[in-house]
Design a protein that fits this description.
Blueprint: H1 3-35, H2 39-49, H3 53-56, H4 58-70, H5 72-81, H6 83-102, H7 109-139, H8 159-183, H9 187-218, H10 225-243, H11 247-269, E1 272-274, E2 284-285, H12 293-320
Antiparallel strand pairs: 1-2
Length: 341
């Protein structure tokens, strides 16, 4: 297998890791005001991701860095063409990090309410925009002969792309709800399980519509029907396992659904990395967008030695913080009523 193909697969794996792990972070953030009716309950939700959310973002940095090193032309065109959506995502991630760290610094209801709103908003925005971005990679964008983006913001907001945003939004809401059901106990867990049962069928329906649209309109290969079917079966299992109270299996099934969606997206693109919707000859491919073989070889050796270390460390982190959390673990003196004013 050629190194350019290997690194295309590696980047797909890195995005899978990011979307699976950061997906439940976003889901928890969006669901905070629903599963948490007071400060202690919201603290329970937030504490489930407290030890891991910043580590999960490392996958995004790694995916971006790998794209820059392995496919610099792809990186340049994508980040310049998608500048505004990616800038909004970046700002949201920065504000979210500040909000998570600062919300407990002052024991004041208004202070915490404002930071909670920031966490909620900065979870909703990237959840939608990531789907819009990936949908545009599947659909293709207008490129000139120099592989430069020649569209505008409205070009990126097509019905297909907006439906893609709805897909990632619903996948992350489902992911967050089953994660909360897995990691919490008591009333927060009950609310999370109830939400998961409601989200799973809706997520299945919307994802199926988008995926079939992508297959029929923008994919030239037939094997990508396999990850589509896998995603559909997985989302059915999410609902089934949630009904049966098997939160761990429901979480694993939703992770498989997200992974299958990434396989569908990258499989539909290959060998393109940025299809040109106006003229296929202008498309960026793994061949005309890649670095030299020497660069890819050095990157491969670095990845062989470093990636296992990172995976072991992150696995150890999840193992250490594997226990469930309930309101009984939150001190009563921090109890504050959620203000909607």
């Amino acid at each position: 297998m050629e190194l350019v193909t290997v690194w295309f697969i590696v980047i797909a794996i890195l995005w899978t890791g990011y979307l699976v792990l950061e997906g439940f972070d976003f889901g928890v953030g969006m669901l905070m005001p629903i599963v948490g009716r007071n400060n202690r309950e919201r603290r329970v939700a937030l504490n489930t991701i407290g030890p891991v959310w910043d580590g999960n973002e490392v996958w995004l940095l790694t995916a971006g860095g790998a794209t820059f090193a392995a496919f610099p032309e792809w990186y340049a065109t994508m980040f310049s063409g998608f500048y505004i959506p990616l800038l909004i995502i970046l700002v949201a991630l920065i504000v979210r990090a500040v909000a998570i760290e600062y919300r407990a610094k002052i024991n004041d209801p208004k202070w915490r309410t404002n930071w909670d709103r920031a966490i909620i908003i900065t979870a909703w925005v990237p959840s939608i925009l990531w789907g819009v971005a990936f949908a545009n990679l599947v659909r293709g964008v207008p490129l000139d002969a120099d592989h430069q983006f020649i569209g505008n913001l409205m070009t990126l907001l097509s019905p297909f792309a907006l439906l893609g945003g709805a897909v990632t939004l619903l996948l992350f809401l489902t992911h967050g709800s089953v994660f909360l059901a897995l990691k919490t106990d008591g009333v927060v867990r009950e609310r999370a399980e109830s939400l998961a049962k409601r989200f799973a069928p809706i997520t299945l329906a919307v994802t199926a519509v988008w995926a079939i649209w992508a297959q029929l309109a923008y994919s030239e290969v037939t094997w990508t029907w396999i990850p589509l079917a896998c995603a559909a079966v997985s989302l059915v299992l999410v609902w089934w396992f949630t009904v049966k109270g098997r939160s761990g299996r429901a979480f694993a099934a939703n992770a498989v659904a997200i992974a299958a969606a990434v396989v569908l997206i990258f499989g539909s693109m290959f060998p393109d990395v940025m299809p040109a919707s106006n003229d296929p000859a202008n498309s960026l491919t793994v061949y005309n967008a890649s670095s030299t073989d020497y660069t890819l070889t050095v990157m491969s050796w670095v990845a062989v030695f470093l990636v296992p270390v990172i995976l072991l460390y992150q696995s150890w982190t999840y193992w250490v913080f594997r226990k469930r959390i309930s309101v009984h673990d939150i001190p009563e003196h921090n109890e504050l009523t959620f203000s909607k004013d």
